[in-house]
Amino acid sequence: MGRLTLVDGRVLDYQVRQSARAKYMRMNLSADKGLVVTQPVGVGEQQLRDWIHGKLDWITDNLPKVERYTAPLMDAPALPEYLEFPVTGERFRLVYTPTSRHNIAADIGDDGTLTLSGAVGNPEHCRYVLREWTKNYARYHLGQMLQQLATQTGLGYVSYSVKGQETRWGSCSTRGNINLNYKLVLLPVEWVRYTLIHELCHTVEMNHSTRFWALVAKFAPDYKAIHAQMKGAMQYLPDWTKGG
Ligand SMILES: [Zn+2]
């Protein structure tokens, strides 16, 4: 037995039969037996799965035959309807369009919609695409903000990168490389500004000494309140941001 996720989000269970006489893999869809895959002896599990996945278009086209063997995917957490980024003030309405392609493409329309099209029936895959898309968005916009703040404060950095850390908003290496969490783009602008200033100040003071905080206070006088609010804020981020 195996289970296949179809492009529209339904699952289809299938049977696997080994045959000593079979030379090639083959599949059969019928109203009385559902999807049955026959394989020669010695075919590995991964090879079998890849082969079945390659037949997804054919299965989808012939689905009416086996409609009663399909079931909706259970317990799938809801996908977001909007993406909102306080750092830019931009808000994108999300549209999920199922097609027969096996991957998912993300495209911005002129009307401010972000369309995910392809195998959108797989919510785990959708969330992965949303994370990757947001990472790219964050890489550009956080980079611009960092550059502006570096100019304003006179604090330099060598390079920056954007990652999906689970526990920290940012970090700074002794060489002056700043790592920023892409999830910052989901937070209030003042919080983002404080985080970037915090990391820029580390290019001068690689510690959390009194001198360090005095430097932070020079550029972000209200840093104490923000610093306190940001502790524990990670757990309030939307579900789709969780995972690699
Ligand atoms: Zn720090």
Q: Can you give a write-up of this model?
A:
With 244 residues, this protein is an alpha/beta fold. The protein folds into two domains: 2-72, no CATH class; 82-241, Metalloproteases ("zincins"), catalytic domain (Zincin-like). 32% of the residues lie in helices and 27% in strands. The protein has helices at 45-53, 56-61, 123-153, 189-202, 210-219, 223-230, and strands at 2-5, 10-19, 26-30, 34-40, 70-72, 82-85, 90-98, 104-108, 113-118, 159-163, 170-172, 177-181. Strands 1, 2, 3, 4 and 5 form a five-stranded mixed beta sheet that branches. It has a four-stranded mixed beta sheet with strand order 6-7-9-8, covered by helices on one side. A three-stranded mixed beta sheet has the order 10-12-11, with helices on one face. Helix 3 (123-153) packs across helix 4 (189-202) and helix 4 crosses helix 5. The longest helix is centred in the middle third of the chain and has 31 residues, at 123-153. The two termini are 29 Å apart. The mean pLDDT is 89. Bound molecules: zinc ion.
Question: Key terms for this structure?
Answer:
single chain; about 240 residues; alpha/beta; Zincin-like; 4-stranded mixed beta sheet; elongated; binds zinc ion; EC 3.4.-.-; metalloprotease; hydrolase
